[in-house]
Amino acid sequence: MGKVRQIDHPLIQHKLTIIRDVRTGAKEFRELVEEIATLMAYEVTRDFPLEEVEVETPLCKAKARVIAGKKVAVVPILRAGLVMADGVLKLIPAAKMGHIGLYRDPETLNPVEYYCKLPNDIGEREMILVDPMLATGGSASAGIGFLKQRGAQNIKLMCLIAAPEGIARIQQDHPDVEIFVADIDEKLNSHGYIVPGLGDAGDRLFGTK
Fold first, then answer.
1. What is the mean pLDDT of each run of 10 residues along the chain (209 residues)?
2. What positions carry a catalytic annotation?
3. Is the CB of residue 57 less than 8 Å from the CB of residue 82?
């Protein structure tokens, strides 16, 4: 089964508590989601390989290490994943960016695709799929499927909050995909929302209902 990494850094947990609060407005919510994504990206990139190079400091030549030619693409699931992608790109500005458009059918809770645009060379890239909430797991599983259909070989899933049901779905459908989350909540309610969660991430990010 794919590994699940819960990133419990104090800064992440502190900011996550603020965005859970119903009193937090859209502007602060967006800023904090972006900040959390940047902090989480440190862990997502932790296993990137390094290679040794020579640089010249003001004093002498020295051996140092750089990331070994790792190509990265960040792919948000629209629309809620957009702000998280911005946070990751602050840390990895050279990464390419794709977009996957999905919405959840309110009756069946199944994901419906309406847009998919990805870099041409995704088979050569480390793909970071981002979406704030891993609830039923349907949208994330579908998004991972779209990436694989187009040749992606290495995929990581990055979410703020996950439900056990969503984690189980990804592990069942895509056991090769590593999951990074800031917190794992109790359950889903009858409408497929994470409890206690933070409500509808897209609505809170963009001030919509």
1. 87 97 94 97 90 94 87 93 95 92 78 89 93 93 93 96 96 96 95 92 87
2. 104, 108, 200, 203
3. no
